[in-house]
Amino acid sequence: MIIKKLTLHNFRNYEEETFLFEDGVNVLVGKNAQGKTNCAEAVFYLCTGASLRIRHDKQLIRRGAQQARLVAEAVSRFGEVSLEADLFENRRELRVNGNRVTRSVDFLGNMRSVFFSPGELRIIQDGPDERRRFLNLSISQTSRAYASALLRYNKVLEQRNNLLKEDPALIRETLPVWDEQLARYAAVIIRHRREFLERLSPLAEEAHAYLTDGAERLSLGFDADYPREEEGIAEQLTRALAGCLERDIRLGFTTVGPHRDDIRIMIDGADARGFASQGQTRTAALGLKLAELEIFKQLSGEPPVLILDDVMSELDLARRKKLLARTAGVQCILTCTHAERLLYGKQTHKIHIQGGKIVQKPETVRGKA
Predict the structure, then answer these.
(1) Domain boundaries, position 331
(2) Are residues 253 and 318 part of one domain?
(3) 332-348: per-residue pLDDT in tens?
(4) pLDDT over 60 (residue 129)
C-alpha cells in the first residue's frame, strides 16, 4: 500500500495544502506545533475513519471554517484508490473512488496504516479502554465483519443501558430481547479479538526481542475466558447477562461483555502496566506496533503505511537504527524536528512544514551516518 498524494482543505491548521509522498521514508520536518502531526493524523483518518486524538470530527475543522476536506490517492496491489472525507459540524460524507458510502465500515480497508507516537504508550500505561481501542482500530482495518459487529454491539449496548434506568418491571419483560442481540454481536467481536491476539502475541514477542536484543520477553494474553466457537460464546454471555441483571439494574449499566474485557501485557512475567519503566513501556508499545505491521502484511498481502509521529527523539541510538531497519519495503511517514540527526544514512523524501504550509520544494536527502 502506497499513498501517493494527500490534499487537505481547512483541516486542523491547514488552509489548503497538497503533499506528494514517495515509496520509502517520507520525513515531515519542522519545529513543534507547525502541523506535522496534523498531516500524519489526516492519513490515519482516511485509513480508519477515526482520529487517535479526538472523539468529535468537528474538532478537526480549521478554526473559522465551516467544513474540512481530506483527499488521498493511493495504490495497492489491487490498483488505484481514492478516498475522500468531507467533515461538517455535525456530520460527514465519505467517498471511495468518487462513490459516496453510507456505512462507515465500507470506508475501512481501502487504505491501511499503523500509527505510532509517544501517545501510544497509553496502550500499556492506561486502563482497559486504551487496549480495547487499539484492538478495535486494528482489527477493523482488516475485517469489515468485525467493524460491523462492533458498531451494532455498541448501539444495542446503549439501548440496553438506557433500559436499565427505566422501571424494573419493564426491564425484566423486554431485556431478554436485547440480551440475545448483544450476545450475538459480542460473540463475533470476541472471536475476532482472540484470533487477532493469537497472531499478534508471537509477532510482538519477536519484535520486542529484536528491539531489546533478547534481554526481556514480552507476552500477551486475553483477560477473559470464553469458549472457542461463537455459539458457545453467545450462550455463555447470555447466562452472564442474566446472572448480573440485579447488579446492572442497581448500577444502571451493563457490567459484562467485550466492552469490559482487557488484554494482559506482560514483560518477563510481570504486568507491564504496573511494573514497566518508561523505557520498557516505550519498547513494549513499539513491539506491539511492529507486530501489527506484520499482521497487516500477512492478511492483506502488502504492508500498510507506517506512520511514526515524533518517535525518534524518544528512542536511543540502537533502537532508532533497529526501527529504521524494519521500514525496509514499507512506505513510512515520519515526523521530526531534525531529520539529519535521526536517520543515519537512510535515503528519505523530506518535506518542510511551517505554519500549516509546505515552505520549500520537497527534496530527497540522505541522513548523516
Answers:
(1) 1-112+304-369
(2) no
(3) 999 998 765 556 566 78
(4) yes
